[in-house]
Amino acid sequence: MPKLNEHIEHLSEEAISKYLGNKLSSKEMHIVEKHLLDCTLCSEAIEGFESFPEIDILESSLVLQKKVQNRTSEKKDYFKLGIAASIALLIAFSFFFLFDFVDNDQEKSITNLQKRQSAPLEKGTQPDSLIADNFSSSNEEFINTDEIVEETKGSSAKQDLKTIRMKRPKTNAQTETKQDELIALAEDDSNYDEEIVLEETAFMDDEVEEVMITDITQDDPVLAPVAEKIKSQGITNEKKASARSSFSTQSENQNKVGQEQLLATPKKVIQGRITDETGDPIPGVNVIVKGTTVGTTSGIDGLYKLDVDSGDDILTFSFIGLNTQEVVIDDQSIINISMDADASELSEVVVTSRSAGRKKGNLGYTESNVKEKSTKAEPVGGYKSYKNYIKTSLKNNYPEEALANDVRGKVKLEMTINEKGEIENLRVIKGLGYGCDEEATRLVLNGPSWVAGKKNGVPTAMTVQFTIVFKLP
Amino acid sequence: MLSEKEILKKYKESGDLKLLGKLYAPYMHLVLGVSLKYLQNKQSAEDAVMQIFEKLIIDLRKHEVSNFKGWLHVTTRNYCLMELRRTKGKENSSIESMEFSIPEHHDDEVKLNEEFLEVCIKTLKAEQKKCIELFYLEEKCYQDIVNITSFELKKVKSYIQNGKRNLKICIESKSAKA
Predict the structure, then answer these.
(1) Residues A171-184: pLDDT tens digits?
(2) Cβ(B42)–Cβ(B48) under 8 Å?
(3) d(CA A134, CA A139)
(4) For burial by CB atoms within 10 Å, which of A30, A143, A213, B44 has the most?
(5) Distance (Å) from the C-alpha of residue B54 to the closest C-alpha of chain A?
């Protein structure tokens, strides 16, 4: 029965048990409840018991009391250590466990170390390395090592004990073989990151390497079955797909450095300057690592800079109107390019920019450069003198038929002036007839030569349209 | 019979486990209950009781603890939360944040100034007023109050708790002005 005074220190087991069992009188219940309002400890305790009605509070309490009594009557903490030690010894010689920390890039180091391992084996001496790489070529692990520390304890011929302490990695093992199931089993609990101490004995004659685990912290329900399995299968140094381990005998630092070197993919920086045939820089040129989405464009000064993975990569330089170039990087770090015009591409381009009336400030730097360097194709002496030529010719030689029929008007012509300034593909877009079209054509073909237009300072084929006016003299 | 404070002091000096056992004994079922609440597992809760005891062995020699009950409660809760985090990992988002302050409810309660109690009770909302009166003045238990008012049990608890809080605020403000 709970005390009846108003301020209870705390609720007894009996009180709680009865309260929850509705065995208290109303008044008693009130007292309990009043206490609970003030006592969060008791409140929470009651909540806990409420969710486990099957638990006999009094009985559990007694059991716990006994435990504490045992605990408190022990001879200090040596006892605990003693227990821990004996458990450790028991487990020490009955567990086997293998870890695999190898990253994709680490295969090299592991095979290297494995070679070292097999060499001393043949001599029958103790192994230097603890690595047994059992990868099959198709088997690729993607595991990130957390830490590998190794301490070497002494060295006797056959009984070389090496203790390895490491943290279980949180891994995503993606493998298919049986051995991997074992690993997968162990790594099922992805949050498991307890420390595990490993020991390894030297090789026996038939190159069987045993790796052992000592778990001194806690009993490990996850690892135990796995370890047993592995133990029963044994491990060979050759690539048998039963178990896999990778330990480095190098010091932790060395190993880490090795890992870093293998893991890191050193990026190479390539840079250079892109210019045109005349040596002027070309901005806005696309520089791409072929086959990737890695790329950049050249700056206003024609300079570019890129990170590439290997010398096997190819850089592609492209710009509309210019011939695309590809360069194997090899061991260069500076690649300068000179790009020339691609005539065939540009023949379809109609140059429409006019120097007059365009606001300089609105355009990007590329445009303004183009503006300066681009010119339209035109007759030698300019359109003005050309018009005079036409006028004079027509005055002297107006088409007869048109003359007879009082025909006048405009004939619109289109042609291509190639990069050499030659007239190509001259045709009449809009004609008058009555001999005017033919006369116009004749006049152009026999007329003054033309000067090729330029794009970015490069003579380029261009399409030109103009109109010849037929005015009756 | 030594008081808790004295036992604590003595333990700190001597490290005598038997003393600690004596101190811990009356609270063990409460620790069990709280552990059950958080860990939701009988075995874990029982382990927790022992583990927390181990903790006590160390911590009580290190720290100066005045309110053992409060300290024990906080320790228990933190232990449970850590355990939950450890076993369930980050997926369990319902873990409350850890609390390090020691609740002092019990002491506050005693200081209620009865002078203003009656006045303040009248300022309460009807439901709260009713429940407070039934609980404190007529000393009825929850079940009785449920029967009398036809409120749900949860509501009754809620009214009483909120009413109590409002009373406290009211009384304090009146005391301050006085």
Answers:
(1) 444 444 444 444 44
(2) no
(3) 9
(4) A213
(5) 9
